[in-house]
Specification:
- By secondary structure, chain A is mainly α.
- Chain A is built from seven helices and two strands.
- Chain A has a two-stranded antiparallel ribbon with strand order 1-2.
- By secondary structure, chain B is an all-alpha fold.
- Chain B has two domains: 100 residues, no CATH class; 58 residues, no CATH class.
- Chain B is built from eight helices and no strands.
- Classes of the chains: A mainly alpha, B mainly alpha.
- The interface between A and B is large, with 112 and 101 residues.
């Protein structure tokens, strides 16, 4: 398939099944992008890191990244168009047709179960990122990254402890500590 | 609100600003949109804003994009929706395109590599943090079916993430939606049956109990 059409259709699908915002998108992006072999798992994690630490909706940022990486400017246009169309059409329809949508009994009933399902998918996305942090593959060799485990738990505990501080601060801190430790200590 | 060129410009500038200055997307963005749309511009009342948040959360697509579309539609109809959602996406598209075209060249640089290896641990922590925040609803959840859906989805999600079985996550969502519809129908059916079993006497007893409670 043409890469532009493939990007458009993939992001159309991802957008249609992302319910509940940015993080809910990560498992769908992961499964689509990795199963198609578009980019490596490590590069995807880098992109997630940058997408979280730049302004704008996470979903738009990560889609732009993947679109640009695969098809340059037109890749971005196709990915964003796919991301944009389903929610735009659905919201417009709800606006003109039925405003009572979210208080509908069936919609509410679906969300009772959609919430735990999405939570489980984000948790499984976390475990794959955690695995890539612990077992680092670099140029064909895989090594155990014990400093990564420490850094991961230290960042997590700091995020829970200092809730007032924006999580991006800890993202930058872990990058800085990584640079110092992997570059100059090891 | 009147559909005028001036309104569209203000709408566009407001959402350009939101897109360019808000970090983290989703809920972080909703609070900024709320401040801009209800307090500063007085486009919406706070009740309307709550409705918009509920709709944005319960429809597919990024929350920030959904709420921008809805606020835009409220202010200036179809054209407003289009202008607001394009405006909120434009700054990040430009910023990320610029970053992509420069930074990706340096991914092989050892210093950049080390920094991103460190950031990887931070990304893992960030996602785990989101799981804890989003999972708060489980605290007051007693229905076993909710936990069953959680653990089944987690098992399938993990099996697919570690390539033990290969299938699309989308089937978990579709299955959950179908299960949710069936469960809701069954629940209301059983509740109706239970109401029918109640005799008028029982109902008056219920009323008495209520009155007693109110007196206390």
């Amino acid at each position: 398939m043409n890469i532009y059409l493939d990007l458009f259709l993939s992001f159309l699908k991802i957008s249609l099944f992302t319910v509940g915002g940015g993080y809910a998108m990560i498992p769908f992006i992961q499964s689509t992008v990795l199963s198609k072999g578009w980019i490596s798992p490590e590069l995807l994690i880098n992109f997630i890191g940058i997408a979280e630490s730049t302004p704008g909706p996470f979903a738009v940022n990560i889609s732009t990244f993947i679109g640009y990486n695969l098809g340059g400017f037109w890749g971005v246009i196709c990915a964003i168009l796919g991301l944009f169309l389903p929610p735009f059409l659905i919201i417009i329809t709800i606006f003109y047709v039925g405003k009572k949508f979210s208080s509908n009994k069936i919609v509410k009933g679906i969300f009772v179960f959609l919430r735990p399902a999405v939570l489980a998918l984000i948790l499984s996305a976390f475990s794959s990122v955690a695995y890539a942090t612990i077992m680092v593959s670099d140029g064909g060799t895989t090594y155990f990254n014990w400093f990564g485990i420490i850094l991961m738990f230290a960042s997590f505990i700091s995020m829970r402890f200092f809730k007032k501080i924006h999580p991006i601060v800890f993202l930058f801190a872990s990058a800085g500590l990584g640079l110092i430790f992997y570059g100059f200590v090891l | 609100m009147k559909l005028s060129f001036k309104n569209l410009i203000i709408l566009s500038l407001t959402f350009l600003k939101i897109g360019a200055l808000t970090f983290g997307g989703g809920y972080a963005m909703i609070s900024i949109i709320e401040r801009e749309a209800t307090i500063k511009r007085k486009w919406l009342t706070s009740e309307e804003m709550l409705d918009i948040i509920a709709i944005a959360e319960s429809t597919p697509g990024p929350i920030a994009l959904n709420s921008a579309t809805y606020v835009g539609a409220k202010v200036a109809g179809f054209l407003g929706a289009f202008v607001a959602s394009i405006s909120v996406m434009l700054p990040p598209i430009v910023i990320i395109t610029l970053i992509s075209s420069t930074l990706t060249k340096y991914f092989e640089n050892p210093y950049v590599k080390w920094a991103f290896l460190g950031m990887r641990a931070g990304v893992a922590a960030l996602i785990l943090n989101a799981v804890i925040n989003l999972g708060k609803f489980l605290k007051n959840e007693k229905r076993p079916a909710v936990y069953a859906v959680f653990f089944l989805s987690l098992t399938l999600g993990l099996l697919s993430v570690f390539h033990i079985i290969s299938f699309d996550n989308i089937f978990i969502i579709l299955g959950t939606i179908i299960f949710g519809i069936i469960y809701t129908f069954l629940e209301s059916f059983i509740n109706k049956r239970a109401k029918k079993v109640l005799t008028p006497n029982d109902k008056s007893d219920d009323l008495k109990n209520k009155n007693d409670l109110e007196k206390k």
